[in-house]
């Protein structure tokens, strides 16, 4: 160790192969230096948990700052090369590392439970290992199913020790192997507990000799396409090109549906799935259905537990994900979702798909399969899927006054504009795929009581449901043409705005000979909140009852009416500029959303 605290530069370091995992490279580099993996981890300065074992923090997932600096100094490899061997390489495509903090190891637990990856193990292709002792990083993804080169199913478990392959790297409480060098990286090297006729030690199974199940060329080609999307290429869902993250969100949704409704007939009719792989998937399904506790492994969106399971859900989802015909994709997905809606785990339970929110690219197709709950929703269910790419996050709680007057007011006679504008916002979310009015309100983060009161009352006033939904779609087209605005983010960022600072109002109010009172500052905060969020001013944070302990509801409303009627142009301009600064939007976004 040098005085700087960084490890000394090693005389020679094995270069990583393209796409290699960090555990694989460390094992090969250690063998090249006649060291154990644990000794190699210490030699390159990986940050480890305190104690006697060598257990690097976030091993193979992401490098901490200390580990990165140490590895750079000891190996001469640059940061991009080191980062490319971590699972974090797939951040933003197949994996979502939101909430992961390299300074807090406990933050990894929810990521492990949520994401489709093998964090302490791997899958493997025996034929690849027979050619070279390199473990690709993608073998650690939950979507890893088959080898596109050799067209065989990946291996999950070592035949000799019965443990997941690759688990010896970091999946044991004793950490990395420290006593003996790993001369052959293609051997299992899982730690085996002592048994009746054997001592504790390392499994010496040669993984390249394990049997490999051949798969059809179509399945291998599908795996290659999936991996291309994982590496950042755009994907295709129901005939539309989407970004990588949305593609994998769609794959998770279709996987949940497949797990819920797939039958033996579905598997038998899938030419890309050999019978033994389909049987393994059905066995996984049976085990999940028999589980009573509902742990992470039994959840519909859990990571595929085996290569056979991954191959099955990829093959069955392909008719939706990779089809070029949106209508065909819609028919497949509609058949699945209708089957799911009519199926119940236990009599009296609700639609099991309801908690599963589909991504934007599938919302309209999923909505088409939902059974009608009323004549208005029934009219929605028979409409062709709209070509809209706006979600609840991009909608205000009250649609624009002019848009409402032009398109929707005629369908709601005798309705207060604020209530009608709220219903129109909820209807847009229903048009986008929400399964119920309550679900639409939840997606908008809208007051559920207000939403229920509006929908229960106003839907009955709609005399022509088909014309109503036609005009709702026109409204959505208008919003989309103006550019998407993240109203959900605005609501979140302005949730604490209860007063406008005195220094903001004084320069424009003083020349007009108006005092800057606390009440005026609060009304101004409500004006800013409404202006940028499109919400009902009565729900503005500035009108929270705790801030007005002596005021009645009517006096607050009267105060707002007077402020809104009074506000001069200079004050409105000043408040608009103040709101834009708070949101830190660029000029284009602020202009389009305000």
Descriptive overview:
By secondary structure, this protein is an all-alpha fold. The protein is 46% helix and 2% strand. It contains 25 helices and six strands. Strands 1-2 form a two-stranded antiparallel sheet. Strands 3-4 form a two-stranded antiparallel sheet.
Helix content: 40-55%
Structural class: mainly alpha
SS elements, strand count: 6
Largest sheet: 2 strands, antiparallel
Q: What gross morphology would you assign?
A: globular
Strand fraction: under 5%
Uncertain regions spanning at least 5 consecutive residues: 344-350, 585-594
How far apart the termini lie comes to: 58 Å
Number of helices: 25
The averaged pLDDT comes out at 86
Main-sheet strand order equals: 1-2
Radius of gyration: 29 Å
């Amino acid at each position: 160790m040098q005085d700087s605290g960084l490890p000394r530069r090693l005389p020679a370091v094995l270069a990583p192969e393209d796409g290699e995992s960090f555990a694989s490279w460390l094992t090969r580099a250690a063998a090249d230096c006649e060291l154990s993996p644990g000794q190699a981890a210490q030699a390159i300065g990986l940050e480890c948990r305190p104690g006697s074992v060598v257990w690097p923090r976030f091993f193979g997932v992401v490098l901490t700052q200390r580990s990165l600096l140490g590895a750079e100094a000891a190996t001469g490899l640059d940061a991009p090369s080191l980062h490319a061997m971590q699972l974090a390489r797939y951040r933003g495509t197949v994996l979502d590392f939101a909430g992961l903090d390299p300074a807090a190891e406990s933050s990894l637990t929810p990521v492990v439970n949520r994401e489709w990856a093998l964090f302490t193990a791997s899958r493997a292709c025996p034929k690849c290992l027979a050619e070279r002792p390199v473990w690709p990083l993608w073998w650690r993804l939950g979507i890893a199913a088959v080898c596109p080169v050799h067209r065989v199913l990946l291996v999950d478990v070592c035949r000799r020790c019965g443990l997941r392959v690759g688990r010896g790297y970091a999946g044991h409480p004793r950490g990395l192997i420290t006593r003996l060098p790993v001369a052959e990286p293609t051997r299992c090297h899982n730690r085996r507990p002592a048994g009746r006729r054997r001592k504790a030690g390392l499994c010496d199974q040669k993984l390249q000799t394990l049997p490999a199940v051949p798969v059809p060329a179509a399945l291998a080609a599908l795996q290659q396409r999936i991996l291309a999307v994982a590496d950042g290429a755009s994907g295709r869902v129901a005939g539309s090109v989407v970004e990588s993250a949305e593609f994998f969100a769609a794959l998770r949704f279709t996987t949940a549906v497949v797990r819920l409704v797939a039958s033996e007939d579905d598997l038998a009719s899938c030419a890309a799935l050999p019978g033994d792989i389909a049987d393994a998937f059905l066995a996984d399904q049976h085990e999940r259905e028999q589980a009573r506790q509902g742990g992470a492994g039994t959840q519909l969106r859990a990571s595929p537990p085996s290569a056979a399971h991954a191959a099955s859900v990829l093959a069955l989802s392909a008719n939706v994900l990779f089809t070029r015909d949106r209508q065909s994709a819609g028919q497949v997905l509609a058949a699945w979702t209708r089957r799911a809606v009519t199926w119940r785990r236990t009599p009296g339970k609700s639609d099991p798909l309801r908690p599963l929110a589909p991504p934007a690219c599938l919302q309209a197709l999923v909505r088409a399969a939902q059974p009608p709950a009323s004549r208005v929703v029934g009219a929605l269910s028979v409409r062709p899927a709209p070509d809209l790419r706006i979600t609840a996050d991009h909608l205000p709680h009250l649609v624009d006054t002019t848009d409402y007057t032009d398109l929707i007011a005629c369908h709601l006679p005798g309705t207060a504009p604020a209530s009608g504008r709220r219903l129109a916002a909820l209807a847009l979310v229903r048009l986008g795929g929400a399964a119920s009015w309550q679900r639409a309100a939840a997606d908008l983060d809208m007051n559920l009581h207000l939403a229920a009161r509006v929908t229960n009352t106003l839907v009955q006033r709609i005399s022509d449901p088909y014309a109503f939904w036609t005009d709702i779609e026109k409204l959505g087209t208008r919003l989309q043409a103006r550019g998407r605005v993240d109203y959900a983010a605005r609501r979140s960022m302005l949730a604490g705005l209860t007063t406008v600072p005195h220094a903001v109002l004084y320069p424009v109010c003083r020349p007009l000979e108006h005092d800057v009172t606390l009440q005026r500052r609060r009304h101004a905060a409500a004006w800013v909140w409404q202006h940028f969020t499109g919400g009902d001013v009565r729900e503005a944070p500035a009108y929270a009852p705790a801030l007005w302990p002596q005021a009645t509801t009517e006096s607050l409303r009267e105060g707002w009416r007077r402020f809104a009627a009074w506000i001069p142009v200079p004050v409105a301009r000043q408040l608009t500029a103040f709101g834009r600064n708070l949101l830190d939007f660029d000029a284009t976004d602020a202009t389009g959303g305000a």
